[in-house]
Amino acid sequence: MASSTSITLLAHCLCATHTFHTRIPPSSLPLPTSICHCTSCRLTTGALSTSATPWPTPRATVNTSALRTFAFSPRINVLFCGTCGSPLFFEFPLEKGARLSVVAGMVRVGRDGDGDEGCGFEDEDEGETDTGTEIETELLQSAKHICVGDTRDGGATLWAPRWDRRSGEEVPRFWGRSEGSAALGWDWLDEINTTRSEHGDQDEDADQDEDEKVLPIRCKCQGVNLRLHRGPASPTTTSTPPAKLRSISCSCRSCRLASGASTFHWAVAALSNISFATLSTFSSSASTSACPSTSTPAFPTSASALRAAVDASALGTLTYYASSPSTQRYFCRVCSASVFYASAERKGEVRVAIGVLGAGSGARAEGWVHWGGLEGDWYKNWDGYGHDAGVEKKKKQYARCGRTSKALMETRLDVDATA
Ligand SMILES: [Zn+2]
Ligand SMILES: [Zn+2]
Ligand SMILES: [Zn+2]
Ligand SMILES: [Zn+2]
């Protein structure tokens, strides 16, 4: 019989093939998380940042052998589910005992027996049936933001709360990793922009983005290496006026478990505007170019064709997990990056993970993505990539990929609407 003085900490992937659980004293909550905004984290998850907290049991007692491993760096491995792509752990192989940190978005508090019988949730895209016990205390606490400098534009820190709700202290932000790195003031982006404007180059990067006709869609391992093109026309059309893609910021269970981030950001794009990387030279160069080589296939232009192509192993390392009968979550089977979300209902479009976009201006790809709708009050409740019970409750109001709160979360721009 489990003691009432301890609680179950669970981590499981989206498809629930892999579940890890341990017991911890309630006094150990909230678990401190370090939120990393580095380019590698974005390219490995498709999210705008990742967050992790030490897994509180000895490494030797945690059997991760069924998880897939990606060498994120010489000193960090990402351990993820090969079926659904959920990143579960960061492993530090060079450290004594190969320490494990669990990806924060995968963690929740369960009730007795949870984890032994599976996680008990149904398909998340259609409903929220989490059986996890809601607790009054916070599960996670944002201790610091690191590698913010990598984002160039501040990335997701734009929406992160400034003050820690428990201590009332400012959550520190660091340009690089916190050790030996410069701490950033709250107004660091304003300061950078002021410096730029004094030199007459304010918003130069965003302007440059808007001039760009192609944008890389590339995961960390580069097994997924595609190009996103402007406008509704074919990749070889050069006369299309620049248009921004509408964004969807989603906190549904599927997005969270697929990426490990509490809030996931998508850009909606026409499939006909995506090509293989080798086609980019044709679309971005003069229209006098010859037709693309016949040896380079066209990228699928419908959700069903995309699925068929991946079923036939024709799209590099891209694979998918069907999170409901009509939806596919595409991820890289080598590095685990979330890349696309496609639905049979939206035949000619996909949602593209903004974290794998390679915009010159920065992580938010401001010259390509319209972020309208994020100013609403709801976003002030965002907990900086934790997800305690209170925040989960609130998020359910606008979860499910924007379906229940389109007015707040989606802004469709003219050209995109006709795509
Ligand atoms: Zn899984
Ligand atoms: Zn990182
Ligand atoms: Zn990859
Ligand atoms: Zn979602």
Describe the protein's architecture and organization.
This protein is of the alpha+beta class. The chain folds into two domains: 7-184, Metal Binding Protein, Guanine Nucleotide Exchange Factor, Chain A; 204-418, Metal Binding Protein, Guanine Nucleotide Exchange Factor, Chain A (Beta Complex), CATH 2.170.150. Helix content is 15%, strand content 26%. It has helices spanning 39-45, 188-198, 204-211, 253-259, 280-284, 303-311, 389-396, 406-409, 414-418; strands at residues 7-12, 19-24, 31-36, 50-54, 68-73, 76-80, 87-91, 100-103, 107-110, 140-146, 173-174, 183-184, 214-218, 225-229, 245-250, 264-270, 274-276, 318-324, 327-332, 338-343, 349-353, 369-370. The strands form five sheets. Strands 5-6-7-8-4-3-10 form a seven-stranded mixed β-sheet. The termini are far apart. The model is unreliable at 112-136, 233-241, 280-294 and 374-419 (pLDDT under 50). Bound molecules: zinc ion (4 copies). Residues 219-221, 223-224, 317, 332, 334-335, 337 line the site of one zinc ion.
